[in-house]
Specification:
- This protein has 12 helices and 26 strands.
- It is α+β, with helices and mostly antiparallel strands.
- The chain has 3 domains: 211 residues, FAD/NAD(P)-binding domain (3-Layer(bba) Sandwich), CATH 3.50.50.60; 115 residues, D-Amino Acid Oxidase, subunit A, domain 2 (D-Amino Acid Oxidase, Chain A, domain 2), CATH 3.30.9; 104 residues, Glutaredoxin, CATH 3.40.30.
- A 7-stranded mixed beta sheet has the order 5-4-14-15-16-13-17, covered by helices on one side. A 6-stranded mixed beta sheet has the order 7-2-1-11-20-19. The protein has a 4-stranded mixed beta sheet with strand order 23-22-24-25, with helices on one face.
- The two termini are 25 Å apart.
- The protein binds flavin-adenine dinucleotide.
- The site of flavin-adenine dinucleotide has 32 residues, from helix 1 and helix 8.
């Protein structure tokens, strides 16, 4: 397997492929990590994926600087800002919902990338930074990547995780659709300044600055010295020290501006996620505004899905891989669309109404894949997972700190309520559980990505399907 691109998505791809026992080489043109600490919000679904890979503790340890920075803040300046109320959804009985065995965390991209890179190398991936791919070619059996030094690297499949401008997507002539550019360009200013005294009583994730001369969002990168100011408008040539002192509302004697980067909120989704043996993932497949903090998280879900599908393809079962576009394009479009219609004013609180998905639907992989056998549609404006076909199995705690999500991955699993005996000859590892979303006598079949492929009460039906369709239950095209 070949992965091109060593950002968050490419590095996770290498880890997932190793988890499925596949040999993998990753080629990245940069020599180091992301120069800007762009993405920071790692959502619950991504943490579940890291949990499956055995990395959740490591990531949480690396994220310790921003532990507790859950709140949003707003004010004319940072000095005048106050924390906004913490949003914690409750169920009908008023109990706080616990949707995942893993809490989300905040960790700057330039801290997370090295953690993933080291883990990938430790796990046996060949990770080669400083290696640019200049050409990609494929035939019926293999893909060949040519590097800047003229070296040729061959593999059975290639994951293009080469970012929003994706030279591979461009070379393949794959077009993109979506709402295009949204709003004005923005400027991210990455700076250091000792703000410990100012923020001591308000550990925030993002602080909305409302001063007319310095409107924007101040993001905590380490909550003490490292900050990113997201300024409105695309003018990179402003007097940044002055703007930052205005935004903070205090002199900054030790201020250092490290980089100034323009970016544009856009929604563009590739019209094809696959061209033969080449699979697009991450920003190469979809770009979306950062307001739902979903870009990297969606890309990580792409490669989590590709892991088991590529492993099946290498065993000769290409059915699952044939469903990659149908499933992940739909999921990417949904998330990009939701990210495009969200408010950016933190004082409006948690967005709702007008078809906006419940934030946990985005954060917990609540998207329903278009699988055959769907009898009930998963709602999106409320978070109400019920073990429907095409959705991630709802999280419930089992014995010894295990979750229902731990039952599958990298293998399939048959999760059964009531007696396991009738299910024992279906050809899947059987796990007996006692959970509220399964009546006794009902079973759900989990794919290796913890998505429910089948639900029913008749073991014969499951056996017949498994025989007729392999174990993949090929997705709708
Ligand atoms: C301001 C901002 C805030 C954000 N916040 C969040 C957030 O909180 N949560 C979230 O989930 N997302 C967030 N995002 C989005 C997130 O940053 C991206 O979606 C994510 O980084 C994309 O990862 P990637 O690995 O797909 O692409 P990239 O990080 O762009 O990586 C692609 C890699 O491919 C390499 N490459 C390209 N061409 C070649 C080649 N020919 N040969 C070899 N290597 C090549 C590049 O050097 C690069 O390292 C944010 C984005 C912005 C702009």
């Amino acid at each position: 397997m070949l992965v091109v691109g060593g950002g968050l998505v490419g590095l996770t791809a290498a880890l997932v492929l190793r988890h499925h026992g596949l040999a993998v080489t990753l080629l990245e043109r940069r020599t180091g990590s992301s120069p800007q600490p762009k993405a920071r919000r790692v959502n619950m679904r991504t943490m579940e994926i890291f949990r499956e890979l055995g990395l959740a503790e490591l990531v949480r340890a690396a994220a310790r600087e921003l532990a507790g920075h859950d709140r949003m803040a707003a004010g004319r300046t940072l000095a005048e800002a106050g924390l906004l109320p913490l949003w914690r959804p409750v169920d009908e009985s008023g109990t706080v919902i616990e949707p995942s065995p893993e809490l989300p965390c905040l960790i700057a991209q330039d801290l997370l990338e090295p953690v993933l890179r080291e883990a990938a190398v430790r796990g046996g991936a060949r990770v080669r930074f400083g290696t640019e791919v200049t050409e990609v070619a494929q035939d019926a059996e293999t893909v060949t990547a040519t590097t800047h030094s003229g070296e040729q690297v061959r593999a059975r499949y290639l994951i293009a995780a080469d970012g929003a401008r994706s030279p591979i997507r461009e070379a393949l002539g794959i077009t993109r659709s979506g709402r295009g550019a949204l709003g004005e360009p923005n400027v991210n200013v990455y700076f250091t300044a000792d703000l410990r005294e100012l923020v001591r009583d308000k550990p925030f994730n993002l602080c909305q600055i409302e001063h007319p001369q310095a409107r924007g969002g101040l993001c905590s990168v380490d909550g003490r010295h490292r900050w990113v100011f997201m300024a409105e408008g695309g003018d990179t040539g402003r007097d940044w020290p002055r703007v930052l002192e205005t935004a903070v509302g205090a002199p900054l004697p030790d201020l250092e501006v490290h980089s100034v980067l323009t970016w544009q909120a856009e929604m563009r989704v590739a019209d094809r996620y696959r061209a033969g043996r080449i699979l697009l993932a991450g920003d190469a497949a979809h770009v979306m505004p950062p307001f739902a903090a979903s870009g990297a998280n969606t890309g990580i879900a792409d490669v989590h899905d590709l892991g088991w599908k590529l492993a099946a393809a290498l065993r000769g079962d290409t059915g699952p891989l044939d469903g990659y576009h149908a499933e992940r394009h739909a999921a990417g479009w949904f998330t990009a669309e939701q990210s495009s219609i969200r408010t950016v004013n933190l004082r409006d609180g948690v967005p709702g109404g007008d078809g906006l998905a419940h934030p946990y639907v985005l954060a917990c992989g609540g998207f329903q894949y278009p699988l055959p056998g769907i009898t009930e549609t998963e709602p999106i404006t409320e978070f109400a997972p019920a073990g429907r076909v095409g959705t991630r199995i709802p999280h419930r705690w089992l014995a010894e700190g295990r979750s229902t999500l731990d039952l599958a991955g990298p293998d399939w699993a048959l999760v059964v309520a009531g007696s396991p005996i009738p299910w024992q000859d279906c050809g899947f590892p059987v796990h007996q559980v006692d959970v509220d979303f399964l009546e006794p006598g009902t079973a759900v079949l989990l794919r290796p990505d913890q998505v429910i492929a089948w639900r029913g009460t008749d073991p014969r039906q499951l056996t017949e399907l498994a025989v007729a369709d392999g174990v993949c239950f090929t997705t709708a095209q």
